[in-house]
Amino acid sequence: MAIALSLATLSGLPEPVSRPGYDRAGLRPGILHVGVGNFHRAHMAWYLDRLFESGEGQDWALVGAGVRAGDAAMRDRLSAQDWLTTVVELDPKGLSARITGAMIDFVGVDPQAVISAMADPAIRIVSLTITEGGYYVDAKTDGFDAAHPDMLHDAANPDAPQSVFGMILAALRRRRATGQAPFTVLSCDNLPENGHVCARTVTGLAQLSDPALADWLRENVAFPNSMVDCITPATSDRERALIRDRFGIEDAAPVVCEPFRQWVLEDNFPQGRPPLERVGAEFVADVGRHELMKLRILNGGHAAIAYPSALLGHHFVHDAMADPQIEAWLRALETREIIPTLQPIPGVDYGDYLELIVSRFANPEIGDTIQRLCLDGSNRQPKFILPTLADALGDDRAIDGLAQEVAFWCRYCERTDEAGREIAPNDDNSDGLRAYALASRDDPLAFLGNRTAFGALADNPRFQQAFAGKLRLIHEQGVRAAIAAYLSAPAA
């Protein structure tokens, strides 16, 4: 019989399961984290658990927080097991389980409770994992979306906000009024210059109602950039059964992830920070090049395999990587067109990093799905593919493969695969994307009419020509023929 996870049952868990050796009662809060999903518990909470296990930094324990209705359900699940989480690393050499205990509380899902917790002087970092699309970015200008209803509400009701950014402002305002130092705001989301984006949203919201506060924020509050990486699939019945059957644990909110993590942070924490460099995190003056490497090679690589694999009917990422044509397509696109857009990083070999990425994608234990990689293309393509394409065009480099990736996305947006099976909508703009994609059957450039995604790229003649040719090839001969043609063409 599986044992229900809780503090009381820790000592009775099966021997192979690793568990905290530190006294959780001795932990003191230092970080409030908004967005206690799988990625956070596989990444930031995991690093902190390792740090506490070493005997260091035990005044930096986590307090969870949430601002959406679904966060209340997560709070209930974690509360019943004393905020503990089972993290299973899906290493093909052998699975391992660790009970992590870095979280010691979870604030009630209520704006005033969250504001009060942020205003507590013990909290020196407020961190966020709220998805790439949660920062109120205007898709047309790439700036702050001041006209969004959430932002208009919070600007009009600064003491009764609904968004996490309104809550951050209310807490900082309260700390300033009481003479308390401001906390550092740390974005842990997977978007370029996440700290700068976060700062722009917080100060932009302040500017709407209190310009003096916006000025104070710019001078006094730190928003360090960070690069995060750990493939963390959604938890399904498959993973829950694995944890129950393999490790004898009944966990209401377990996490599975790959056995690889990377965290590179700008070292800008005026109120102090945990010494995470002692457990593998990297602190640098400028995260930019590391971030770009990851966004283009890893996230761009995910995009590259996602759409052709979905059109060919692959379900799991590792199955797609076992398809020789998909792996060859990934390697060719990366080496010919993506990696050449990157500036060197001292001590980093991009070829070695690509090999690491290929092996991570091919890990059969992860069970990551092609469907997950295809999610939210209208938000991810402009972050992971189109900037690479723009740089390649600007430098007069090869773009045929990047244009083909966009063409695969277009064909995917029709919402049927090559066998005629329906593809379920998985993008907030799914209907509009489908309309553009279907119109491209008659006019290949119709898809580029989506100015929100493509902006000025839609007018580039070289991109137009390459995209139209690739899309025609996919429509007329199919995905495999398009990949074969790219692989057989001489590298530019």
Automatic annotation (TrEMBL):
InterPro entries: Mannitol_DH/Oxidoreductase, Mannitol_DH_C, Mannitol_DH_N. Residues 30-277 form the Mannitol dehydrogenase N-terminal domain. Keywords: Oxidoreductase. Residues 286-472 form the Mannitol dehydrogenase C-terminal domain. This is Mannitol dehydrogenase family protein. It comes from Paracoccus marinaquae.
